[in-house]
Amino acid sequence: MTTSVDLHTYLTARRERVEKALREVFPPAWGIPSTLRDAMDYSLLAGGKRLRPILVLAAAEAVQDDAERASDRAMPFACAVEMIHTYSLIHDDLPAMDNDDFRRGRPTNHKVYGDAMAILAGDGLLTHAFHVLASAAKGGVPAERVLAASEELAMFAGVFGMVGGQALDMEGEQGVTSLGQLESIHLHKTSDLIAFSVRAGGHASEAGDDQLRALERFGKNVGLAFQIQDDILDLTGTEEKLGKPVKSDERQEKVTYPFLIGLDESRKRVSSLTEEANEALLGAGLSDPRRLIEIAGSLLNRDH
Amino acid sequence: MTTSVDLHTYLTARRERVEKALREVFPPAWGIPSTLRDAMDYSLLAGGKRLRPILVLAAAEAVQDDAERASDRAMPFACAVEMIHTYSLIHDDLPAMDNDDFRRGRPTNHKVYGDAMAILAGDGLLTHAFHVLASAAKGGVPAERVLAASEELAMFAGVFGMVGGQALDMEGEQGVTSLGQLESIHLHKTSDLIAFSVRAGGHASEAGDDQLRALERFGKNVGLAFQIQDDILDLTGTEEKLGKPVKSDERQEKVTYPFLIGLDESRKRVSSLTEEANEALLGAGLSDPRRLIEIAGSLLNRDH
After folding, report:
1. What ipTM does the predicted assembly reach?
2. Is pLDDT of B75 > 90?
3. Is-contact B134 A134, C-beta < 8 A?
4. Which Pfam families match (chains A, B) (predicted)?
5. What was the pLDDT predicted at A3?
């Protein structure tokens, strides 16, 4: 499946709206120290697919007929997710962590601003994400829903979610041997934030519990498929397309899906997870799950 | 002013309740990776004065007659503040930041768990603070109040608050020359989180806007006095009492209040700020501001 013209138009339009909103998350009047502001903007406004915030908007639109209104209401959640994702990349790239010099074809944050400012930029983005998220209440999302989203963001991005997955990954460097271990790391490191993204969109559109559960199942499966595809692309992709060195997993002796079960099996797993993701959406009474299904499909055959 | 027996009893009782609550912020069933959990607990359960969480409880009790109920409702906010404070210490102590080896008489987090795990432990505590804070809704605090507290925590601890102050401090290492600059750093680095603490207590007891403003003014002044007293103690205190090396500011060539205006003037400033703090509470229609005033007084003459 390739990205249809229609989906391409949709993704471009949503990405542009996300970019615009991200440029406005720090009110200029509030006087953030300039180096800190520059360091945060350097990574937050570095482009990228904006997959997670687009999934927030697409999920909100899947629940509610009025797509414009749904994505407006969900935008603070979309920005918060991207801020969390960005902070995690900044901290992961630090010398003490993965020690990466390049990200999206540019020097990593600490290479430009130094380790101390990169740590602060990450802390700042992480903290301010909760401020931006809370502003959804001003856009008409009921306080209970905003609070639920805040609590869930802390869980899916925190010690039981993304941060926990990162810690598992570090512990695992002493030797991941089973697929179960690897899957647990990926589920937390990557899937949890994607699962949160679609749940958050659901909350913005006041989805019912069944719909939230269906969205979460979709997100977990898509997130795992996405991570396996990343492992595959690290082996088979080109540096030009990816904007980062290829075969870095091999060099760092990371245990990946292709390493454990081979390329073919890894590709099959991406397909079956994508199918499971889409199945989760059927029968959940969503107003229109088409975009979410299209996005999941487009991730299946991506080359970057 | 010295700590009265009565105040001592109060502080001990509240500290014990805070310690108990802090031991329960991570539900055991949720399966946090053990090294991460250990690293977070190492710093979170390291004792200390617990000034910020006690101020949360005391502010809640100042607004509401029923002290037991007030402090129960405010406890999630109290824990969240201490988690934020703890994460900031872990990250500040990192080699890339202040490079401190000891804190409260023990090796710092990264000396025990390594830099990478210390970064993650900080990220985990910071993120989970918002989860714990949100749980106040289950204790009967209205969702709107919990959401307001969450938004304020993100602001006072974030890029306009504590993280911003830290960045200002780093920029200032190239040369703070004026009292205004130094005060701005301290206000953000230290006062903001203390101002949040008393506001959060106010929210837990559904304080009115005037009361919240009075509590915030109290907190800002107490926070600044507290920081100046820290500068003074670094010069005049003993390593045994402080649990960390003295005169570290001098060695690190940090610009402090005593450096800029001398010891005597610094001490006068602590007194006048404490008076201003207490004045802020009068006329705000608080049910009983006595404990807050006593706590501010006890900070004035502390030796650690």
Report:
1. 0.95
2. yes
3. no
4. polyprenyl_synt
5. 58
